[in-house]
Amino acid sequence: MNRFFKAMCLLLVPAWVQAEGVVADRPGFSTGTHTLAPGQLNVEMGYQADMWDSNTLHTAPLLNLRTGLAEDLELGIAWAGYQVFDGESSQSDVTLALKKRITMSADYNLSALAQLDLPTGDGSDNFSETRVLGGLLWDKALQADWGLFGVLQAESNYRVDERELNLQAAIGTNQSHSEKIGSYVEVLTDVPLTYSGDAVMILNAGLTYLFDANTQLDVYMGGGLENSDTDFIGFGFARLF
Fold it and tell me: How many domains does the chain have?
């Protein structure tokens, strides 16, 4: 389940709250529906610690670079970076992503997401081991400062010498408490489709602080609700150029 905890993407303060300025895709399970305009660049970085029993896995810099390719279409290049466990480090794969806005309105948004992990990290020896993901992202404004968001996506991943398929769904709620402070709570479930195993459910929650119009800070934590004994905590920032 570490791939979820090292994911770079979650809508924290949605497009209807921050119509202008930075809108981050970090730090949880689901990217937001917002896409950058052509010429804009988002730089997002962070740190995360995953904990189980007496073990801790450290991951940084959780780098995510996003830029607008065309109206309602953006490119993302993500690299979780280095993972340090028990004094030894390893490198993660590089992820390429395309996000396309399908529907945009004052109270409802829908986007499509496609991701491809390139076998650049430790443990990825050939292209057959790449991870492919596709999904739909949505958000719904309930009030001016409160809304729902979620994602439904399918993932094809290489496990135990075979390519397998699993389904992931997340739903959450977010709220703007002031012009600078926002919060969210999200639940993710991961269901295996073509291999044996139990479905996993994870809770993730956090706070965001809008330092200025182009800089957002975040802190978050969570853990397994069902069939997962891993807890995690992290922090980071996003900067719009």
Answer: 1
